[in-house]
Design brief:
44% helix, 138 residues, 3 strands, three-stranded antiparallel β-sheet
Length: 138
């Protein structure tokens, strides 16, 4: 249960970081007070495309175009997560190399040690059990 919650939590946090860095624009086109088109990936269509190009020459359409308006909302993600190599100066490089070497040495000393229990005293064998039961390792 605990590992499942950790996996779900880490996935949600990763998605939060991913979506917080996205930047996108939303374009809205209004004709009068009515919302005609919303676009997330391109330009919003205006009223002239719906009416046709032959209608654009009439004075009524020109007056309608003045009441039409476009709104562009830019939603920018955060740029704080971007790392650059220029900020990674010599002192940070030396610290990183030292940290990695000391961290690796923690595990090397553990693996080189023998895994014996010093305080364990094996029982005294009165009879050879393999010979007694006639069990031989071939």
């Amino acid at each position: 249960m605990k590992s499942a919650l950790q996996k779900i939590g880490s996935t949600l946090l990763a998605l939060l970081v991913l979506f917080s860095t996205f930047s996108f624009t939303v374009e809205k086109h209004y004709c009068g007070d009515f919302l005609v088109d919303v676009s997330f990936f391109g330009d919003a269509q205006d009223c002239a495309e719906e009416l046709g190009e032959e209608d654009c020459d009439s004075p009524q359409i020109i007056q309608k175009k003045k009441c039409c308006k476009d709104e562009v909302e830019k939603i920018e993600g955060q740029d704080d997560l971007k790392n650059s190599i220029e900020k990674f100066d010599l002192e940070k490089q030396q610290f990183l190399v030292t940290f990695i070497q000391s961290y690796k040495s923690l595990f090397l000393a553990e693996s080189q040690r023998k895994k014996e229990n010093i305080h364990h005293i094996p029982p005294k064998l009165i009879k050879d059990l393999q010979v007694l039961h006639e069990v031989y390792i071939i």
